[in-house]
Amino acid sequence: MKQHLFTMEDIPGFRCTKALGLVRGSSVRARHLGRDLTALFKNIVGGELDEYTKLLGEVREQALDRLVDEARELGADAVVGLRFVSTEIAKGAAEVLVYGTAVKLEPLDDPTHVSR
Amino acid sequence: MKPTQPTRDELLAMAFVDDQLEPEARAAFELRLAKELPLAQEVAALRRLDLFARSAARPEPIDLAWRAIDSAPAQRAVIGLGWVLAFAGSLGLFAIVLFELLHAHLPLWQKTSLLAVFSGLTLVFLAILKRRIQSRPFDPYTSVER
């Protein structure tokens, strides 16, 4: 089953029946020198550095997939309290760490109720 | 043209990417993935599709403008020529440095050491480049646009 990802802790319509623990995924990626040079020239003239927009997208999706893999290993229905952290390890490389809590969920009889 | 039916392995790969396999079947499939490169390539291709569906964004006006500018023959020619000149110049500089090193008035041990550093770094770079080229088909994240 695909895991659902939430930034909130309480999911309307569901009750959290079990917290399975911390799950996380991280990735560090870089573009190649040609793209870095192109980005350098774009940096001089301004505008979006789409080379790095793409880099950030790649690293974000890979980190998310790794988090989902960990959640699946634990048998989680969802990950709540999802957070992204970004830092710079090397010049031209992007690192994204994504973490959250893997939980088991159960639908509530009254879907207007918010889980606690 | 009659559509071809997916093979059993293709169906298994789809179920694996969609997280629809039972734990035992998943573990068995993961064992096969480690040994069978074509299967790993199939999974990477399906993940690429999944990623595309997940991250595909509606083109923004600037995307269309960039595409039009980048595909114009004059722009392609100028950028292509620029890269060819820069690459050829870098190779020339590399050759000059090597030539100067070999003809420099240095003791033999210094020349040998410098040459060893140059050759060693070149070999390491080539090995890393080969690794990247060979593993690229297994990296679905290169298809993410933003």
Short description:
The complex is a heterodimer of chains A (116) and B (146). Chain A has 116 residues and is α+β, with helices and mostly antiparallel strands.
Explain the overall architecture.
The complex is a heterodimer of chains A (116) and B (146). Chain A is an alpha+beta fold. Chain A has helices spanning 33-45, 50-73; strands at residues 4-5, 14-30, 78-87, 93-107. In chain A, strands 1-3-4-2 form a four-stranded mixed beta sheet. Chain A is elongated and about 60 Å long. Chain B is mostly helical and 146 residues long. Chain B contains six helices and no strands. In chain B, helix 1 crosses helix 3 (37-55). At the A-B interface, helix 2 of A face helix 3 of B.
Q: Any low-confidence stretches of chain A, pLDDT <50, length ≥5?
A: none
Multimeric state:
heterodimer
Morphology of chain A = elongated
Overall pLDDT metric of chain B:
90
- What integer is the average pLDDT of chain A? 89
Describe the sheet with the most strands of chain A: 4 strands, mixed
End-to-end separation of chain A in angstroms reads: 23 Å
| Strand element count of chain A | 4
The total count of helices of chain B amounts to 6
Number of helices of chain A: 2
Specify the overall morphology of chain B: flat
Could you tell me which chain pair has the largest interface and how many residues each side has? A-B, 16 and 15 residues
Instruction: Give the structural class of chain A.
Output: alpha+beta
N-to-C series of helices and strands of chain A: EEHHEE
Q: Strand portion of chain B, in percent?
A: under 5%
Count the E strands of chain B: 0
Radius of gyration of chain A: 18 Å
